Amino acid sequence: MKDDSLVTHAGNAPFENHGVINPPVYHASTILFPTLAAYRNAKTAKVRYGRRGTPTSHALEDAIAALEGGSGAVSTPSGLSAITAVVTACVKMGDHILVTDSAYQPTRHFCQTVLKKFGVEAEYYDSAIGVGIESLIRPNTSVVFVESPGSLTFEVQDLPAIAEAAHKAGAIVIADNTWGAGYYYKPLALGADITVQAGTKYIVGHSDANLGVAVWKDSEKFGRIRDDVQSMGICVGPDDLYLALRGLRTMGVRLPRHFESGLAIARWLKARPEVSHVMHPALEDDPGHELWKRDFTGASGLFGFVLHETDQTALAAMMDGLKFHGMGASWGGYESLLIPTNPNSSRSATRWEIEGQGMRIHVGLEDPEDLIADLEAGLDRLGAAGK
Fold first, then answer.
1. pTM higher than 0.70 for the full model?
2. N or C, which end of the chain has less CB nearby within 10 Å?
């Protein structure tokens, strides 16, 4: 089944629900059993307690596992909870883990605080290291964490090379797949053991629900992650599950629009005199372009750029007058966003050397001509205020 058909139909079982196309929203805690024998065999039942899963959560998890090419999945209340729960499930006291230096900042914070408190050492590595990661692997390295492209600066990692080196040493490879969303990037096929993503972004797609999901390749080896996650009391509210299921069904039309519009605006920004650098792996001169061409089938609407201008008064003049580009955390919804960034604020193994004001843009589903006009007016205000 092709991905566009898969996101339309995977996880649906209409004739188990009176012909209803969309899986119903099950608000449930207690699950009743008809006989004592059935109650005593509850552990074999797919639905046995609301926190442990309902037909709504199973429909979403089955669909995303199919999209990612995995054998199983578990949902969590946010992307960060998926990351923290899975990493916790894969480490023990005394372990060493390797984390890409361009990882999502809350991932770093978790490693530097919670994991450190429990005796797990996190070491950060250059995202461009590739096969060279073998030099950093120790006898007690249990996890190698990748995120491709990297947060804020969008470096593409050589996942097959990293995974080969990690597996030789017996380490587990966990890949943050939020940018590719399982639609444009398949880390499990490239060597990762587990993927995590913030379904809040492109799966939900409408900026109205939080969701995380973890997918594993080998159920015999990693199916225990579901039990570990559930042992932490982690579960997702049924209405958020439903919104994620509804969003999933339109990924096949939304993601290509984000890709096409995002790339057009990236190219437009490259030609602007106010912009010194654009970080988008689908651009032919991007350092990660060849890896992107090899491993990805498309790009999301999220990328970065750098302004020559660093005066904050001028930046405010640009930002405060924008009509279509909102200022706010998260991304992946139908609306465009633009925020300033400081890549060096969350790095330790490498340094971001490009001077200027970093920016992160998410290109939504608006008409790209309107978005360009909005940015053009903003850049004009930037220039006028900076004089």
1. yes
2. C
